[in-house]
Amino acid sequence: MKVWHYGDDINTDLLFPGKYTYTCATPDEIRPHLLEDLDATFAQGVQPGDVLVVGRNFGCGSSREQPVVGLKAVGVAAIVAKSFARIFYRAAINQGLLLIECPAAVDAYRAGSTLSIDAAGGTITVDGRAYSFPKLPPEIMAIGEAGGLLEYTRKKLRAQRAG
Amino acid sequence: MSQTFAQKVLARAAGQPQVAVGQIVTVRPAHLLMHDNTAAIVGKLDKDLAEFGLVRRDLPIIVLDHVIPASDEKTATGHAKVRAFVEKHGVQNFFDVGEGICHQVVIEKGFARPGTIIVGSDSHTCSYGAVGVFATGIDRTEAAALLLTGETWLKVPPTIRITLRGRLSPPVSAKDLILRIIGDIGADGADYAAVEFHGDVRHLTIAERFTIANMGVEMGAKITVFPVDEVATEYLFAAGVPRDRYEAVWADPQAPYARELTYDLAALEPVVAAPHTVDNVLPVGRVAGKRIHQALLGTCTNGRLSDLHAAAAILRGRKVSAKVRLLVLPASRDVYTAASRDGTLAALTEAGAVILPPGCGPCLGAHQGILAPGEVCLSTSNRNFKGRMGCKEGEIYLASPATVAASALRGEITDPRTVG
To answer: What residue ranges of chain A have pLDDT lower than 50?
Structure first.
């Protein structure tokens, strides 16, 4: 597992440039441009299970969902941030991408630190020290557990119809 | 107990007497705004629409504006998919290429009714707070789900209260005010929060309130909202929304605020947001003399008639620097037509401007004015992120229409107070 470490106010133009927004929609089209203007090595180097450790206000800017769809598709296990911008946060819930708001863990992280995440237990461990993070309310967790918002919605509508 | 605007709107929408900050409520928005990204949304939903149907034909407002007219076969195909969806499902509110930028269209055509909730798959949906709407951006998958269910969840936000005192002294403008605020509180200064504007808002036109509300998301705000006063009521009436069509909501006098700020409008000066973050705000004098290659006037932030007038007042009878490309993006067909009729467009083109179609143009870097490496654009738009205008080695500075016009004349960033 590799940790990709970035700073504050990483906006969605850096995560996926606006010039591609109306020509790239599928994960395969998105992937080569992920983080293109932030880190040219990312799209080639990212592996399933990798984690992003980032600063404040991650995902600010445009509501485009390609960054979330792309990061989920390449198998990013989680993004650990000091804070997230709200539309990005919702988009991640809707795609089932794990976001962890834990400023203390981000502060503790240094290049080369060891890091592990226990999503169910709500803890993240950096260099042997555990930090807890707040879990989402159950009604919001249910969206990710259903496989994302569209799957969640389909199940709900079918249940309503059957009920 | 006293409640904020956000609490009162969300309580009413959720059918509860009151709601607490942090509580999650289920709401059924009055409208769902979508644009060119509708193509990707409906692509996901073909089977679902066949199975469940579109929940309400009057829920979506679809405006083609982001890449218009289509720049290539792919974007043209996207537009064609949107038109086919509109036709097949009888979508009532559709605005094709040339009607304007989605946010301007929503307000101008009377969809923004005070006290309602509008969500949109565009981050600048917060603009409708200019007329007392709880309006906020969502991602397009959520828009897709809304087409099927008509409902979503919202977390009740804490609220920041900003009190305005006095009046702006031109050429200092609403753009300078909102940039100053964002510079002060930072790009995440209002993350997850509602921002209410209080005080002497009666001196601000709806166009000015629009500029301010539009940029709320640049400080992370969930909504940015103004009270519905006489100015708003008159504007809405002219837009076909008489007072009996809405029930305006405003915060209680003793509502609880997470933070309170006050601004003396007369004390403000022209500012710019320097690359590459919107909160990198400096007095224009600090960067005066910086050579510019492109000047962009318009967009959803500053593309209304009064913005074009502010620029034309400076440019009329003069010539833009031969070293600068001045591009103008009127916010809608109505703005374009009015500016054409009153001679504003002629004044701008005679000064050397190129008038673009009423859409998003180069603002998001897709077409119509991409920067080359090393070039600098001074823009009235709302984002100066690296790569935003299509080139990561380009630089974008944000400013008011007056500052952009004055700078286009001189070919360098210029304090509009120094141009007589």
So the answer is: none
Q: What residues form DSSP beta bridges with A118?
A: A123
Q: Indicate the domain borders of chain A.
A: 3-162
User: Which amino acid appears at position B202 of this protein?
Assistant: R
User: pLDDT, tens digit, for every residue of A88-103?
Assistant: 999 999 999 999 999 9
Name A114's Cβ contacts closer than 8 Å, sequence gap at least 6.
Answer: A125, A126, A127, A128
Q: Which residues of A fall within a CB distance of 8 Å from B386?
A: 13-14, 37
pLDDT tens digits for range B326-361: 999 999 999 999 999 999 999 999 999 999 999 999
Q: Indicate yes or no: CB of B387 within 8 angstroms of CB of A13.
A: yes
pLDDT at residue B252 in the model = 98
Axis-axis angle for helices A138-145, A86-95 (nearest 10): 50
Give the tokens for residue B25. Answer: 């409520």
Residues forming beta bridges with residue B169, ordered by sequence position: none
For residue B293, cis peptide bond before it (omega within 30 degrees of 0): no
Residue B228 CA from chain centroid, whole number: 18
pLDDT single digits (tens) B61-83: 999 999 999 999 999 999 999 99
Answer whether A65 sits within 8 Å of B139, measured CB to CB.
yes
Give the integer Cα–Cα distance in Å for B400 and B301.
10
Window 353-392 of B: residues touching A by CB (8 A cutoff) are 364-366, 370, 383, 385-388, 390, 392
Domains of chain B: 7-14+23-263 (3.30.499.10), 271-418 (3.30.499.10)
> Under CATH, to which class is A3-162 assigned?
alpha beta
- A9, two tokens: 């106010």
* Whole-structure pTM value: 0.97
